[in-house]
Specification:
The chain has about 450 residues and is of the alpha/beta class. The protein contains 18 helices and 14 strands. It starts with a strand and ends with a strand. About 0% of the residues have low confidence.
């Protein structure tokens, strides 16, 4: 069927390309003409594995097009809202300016029987506030949250582990509006390959669908911060947090995933989403219910402090004029996303202490340079570590974690100090090669 995707950032561009790849006719709409020009050429405006091939194929097939003209939404059966919901300036709450703007711009082109499907991560209660405007046109509103992992976004869209569709009606809705049952059926058609493959299709009310996304992110953030809290205890007791994580991870109720202690999480989702969740809970008079998320956030930020402390300690108390090679700029591997990146935060803090900091990353250097031009960037890993007095691993790209041997590094660096901010290296192997190794929560 014909679909519209409004907002062609990280979420929207991937969603539009994926929907075209399974046979739909898709028009992506965004206000940024440079982004639209790139997408129209089949070029991804950000790094995401497999996306560019999907874009090029969709554009070449004629099923995928991009425009800045909202009137091109007319004629689509389903309109996906995929705009950003950044953290408000000066506060924790989500900024819904782009969501409201997208809906207002879309309203003149909605027809009875259309479905507007919200994919943006929003505070619970947002759908109920938007619904009267949408339902007055005879269209229906559903909330269909995304669960993408950067680096695996294409796979997560084409082969999702679950599909959630929230239905509901505001009081006084136009009786011509699509019924909830019909809207759910239409979304089943949109996702027909995944539904046919047995992907769970979960139908809820609006509020539950909105909560599913933020609750999932809150849980993952809590799990990461839990093991980092254990790392803090390990550091004062001599315990090894990696062995601790392995041991408790064998419990099927706990599991080993997301129990990797290190410098913590970042990116455009977990930090802002747990803060927005806390802010919304306060507005609802239930701030105490998620008060623990404030400490989750605080633990996460403290681990960045700890990584910097380890580098300073390694040099006996001062990094002034020491050459430090920082391996990584993106907040995670397989991404060029530097939003709230722990890696860049560590690099900037070390430079602020007087270190000569050199940053390398396979994908994120251009983005990092725009935000932090004061740092020195070198694309080639070996050139970045050449003559370094210390090396700091902060983003676990394979070319740093698996493909850089301590012997090879020794042939290039001036010093033999390695700070493993992701606990991704073989500590014994680096020590055996003559390096002084520092891990996060490791003796």
């Amino acid at each position: 069927m014909r679909l519209t995707v409004i907002g062609c950032g990280y979420l929207g561009a991937v969603h539009a390309a994926a929907m075209a790849s399974i046979g739909h006719e898709v028009v992506g709409i965004d206000v940024d003409p440079r982004k639209i020009d790139a997408l129209s050429r089949g070029e991804a405006p950000f790094f995401e594995p497999d996306l560019e091939d999907l874009l090029a194929g969709g554009v070449a097939s004629g099923r995928l097009s991009f425009t800045t003209d909202m009137s091109q939404a007319a004629g689509s059966r389903v309109h996906f809202i995929a705009v950003g919901t950044p953290q408000q300036q000066g506060g924790y709450a989500a900024d819904l300016t782009y969501v409201n703007g997208a809906v207002d711009a879309l309203l003149p082109y909605l027809r009875p029987g259309d479905v507007v499907a919200g994919k943006s991560t929003v505070p619970v209660g947002t759908a109920a506030e938007l619904a009267p405007r949408i339902e007055a046109t005879g269209a229906a509103l559903v909330w269909n949250p995304e669960f993408l992992r950067e680096g695996w976004a294409v796979k997560d869209t084409v082969e999702p582990d679950r599909l959630v569709v929230g239905l509901g009606h505001s009081s006084g809705a136009d009786p011509a509006a699509v019924t909830g049952t019909d809207a759910a059926a239409l979304l089943r058609e949109v996702y027909h390959p995944a539904v046919a493959a047995g992907t769970p299709f979960i139908v809820t009310d609006w509020s539950t669908a909105e909560l599913v996304k933020v609750a999932a992110n809150a849980f993952l953030a809590t799990k990461i911060s839990f093991i980092n809290a254990m790392a803090e205890i390990a550091e004062v007791t001599g315990a090894d947090v990696t062995q601790l994580a392995d041991a408790i991870g064998h419990d099927v109720r706990i599991g080993r995933r997301f129990l990797g202690a290190g410098i913590g999480f970042g990116g455009g989702c977990l930090p802002k989403d747990i803060r927005a969740f806390s802010a919304r809970a306060e507005e609802l008079g239930r701030g105490e219910s998620v008060a623990f998320l404030r400490e989750v956030d605080a633990i996460n930020l403290r681990r960045r402090d700890r990584a910097v402390e380890l580098v300073v300690q390694a040099f006996g108390g001062s990094v002034f004029e020491k050459r430090v090679a920082v391996l990584g700029a993106a907040f995670k591997p397989f991404s060029d996303d530097i939003r709230d990146s722990p890696a860049l935060d560590v690099a900037v803090r070390l430079r602020g202490l007087g270190a000569d900091v050199v940053v390398t990353d396979p994908a994120a250097i251009d983005n990092a340079r725009r935000v932090h031009p004061q740092l020195t960037y070198i694309t080639d890993r070996d050139e970045a570590i050449r003559d370094a007095d210390a090396v700091v691993l902060v983003t676990e790209w394979d070319e740093y974690r698996r493909q850089l041997s301590p012997e090879h590094a020794s042939s290039l660096t001036a010093g033999r100090i390695i700070v493993d901010g992701r606990n991704g290296l073989d500590a014994a192997a680096w020590r055996a090669a003559g390096w002084t190794y520092f891990g996060m929560g490791r003796p």
